Structures
1.
Amino acid sequence: MATGASKPMTVADFCTELGIARSTFYDWRQKGRAPRCLKLPNGDLRIRRTDYERWLTSLEDAA
């Protein structure tokens, strides 16, 4: 069983954490700008915390 730290995020968790609308997430996903997602058999999406952290790091401004 996954622990709290390793439990994949829901789309709602992701949007809440970043303060964005669900439509923004799906727009980013369509454009290939969202973090990698897992698609569950029921169609729901999950984001691994490690993929989320990696994605955030990739957005850092090097300047």
Note: The beta strands are 9-10, 38-39, 45-47.
2.
Amino acid sequence: MADMLTLEAFEEASEKVKEVTLETKLVESPYLCAATGNRVWLKPENMQRTGAYKLRGAYYKISKLSQDELDRGVITASAGNHAQGVAYAATHAGARSIVVMPTTTPLIKVERTKGYGAEVILHGDVFDEAGEYAQKLAEEQGLTYIPPFNDETVATGQGTIGMEIVQELPLVDTILVPVGGGGLSCGIATFAKLYNPKIRVIGVEPAGAPSLTAALEAGHAVKLPSANTIADGTAVLEVGDKVLPYLKENLDDVLLVEDDELVVSFLDMVENHKMIVENSGLLSVAAAKQLPADGRRVACVLSGGNMDVITMSSVVQYGLIQRSRVFTVSVLLPDRPGSLVRVASVIAEHNGNVIKLKHNQFVTTNRNAAVELRVTIEAYGPEHRQEIIDALSEAGFNPELPSFREAN
């Protein structure tokens, strides 16, 4: 669409989305500034209405529909953020909306989508199956399909984030943007280069779902055989073919982030910024640590914050273990009164906090010779953990560190 992804279109979209979006002002991060050697700001779209940036593109797309298209109703497929954006935007426009979601979608996302006024249909185990079914229903029932990312109008709506960043931070050097299907990165990168070609825009993908990286290497969109990442919002098998040309032209680089880095970044955001950011939204934060430490002005787009409590709990647990804030030691000791007290005393003397004990009397056939005690301990970090382990060794307990799976 020749009239989209232009400065005029971005300006129009920016004014239009203000009708429904919340103001998400940049937040400078002293923690990330110190950790990266750059000045780092966060664009908190996790605080956006519906919990993610997706409302921008969905609303702008729906605002461009004819009355006939609105009267026929809209349909889309999504596992969460886009679903809620379309549902909210359609209800605001007075249009009927249907959202096809995979059967594996967490209940909270299904209920929130319904809460914004959409009819939800659960179909397929993955997004691709839900998407195919949604397009089939669109053809059969004459509904208007709202693409989640592979659409110039949707990308223009997402690009309004870039306009807001430069309005607040005119001297921004680098913008880090999460990449899934490519709509968000397409919009921001295209706007930035039109506004100021010196601004570097870097896309960030999960290492377990590098669809854009694969497309850039092949020279065209290719479908990955699988996507394996905790960043479910960006676990897209194939980048959009309509937005790919813009990404080729306007993105300066693409960085990959491992899942372990996202886990650590989640803890960083909770502890240092008091914010919940979903794993896909943390891609930009994790990638900030890959940049040269040269004092540049960096804006990290936090694309969303829709994370269910069970996933949150799992990420926190793994993050604490990764940072040696929680660890488990296994010791063998005689099954005699006072043995447990001796172990606990050593740990207490070195300011370790015991949070779990597991006593196994059947590790050997001779209980008097040895029983196993597994102690889960809260510590301050790697150095403190090693201090406790060394103290247990000096006391003659010969501690071992079981794997996480064995410990639990």
Note: The chain has a mean pLDDT of 92.
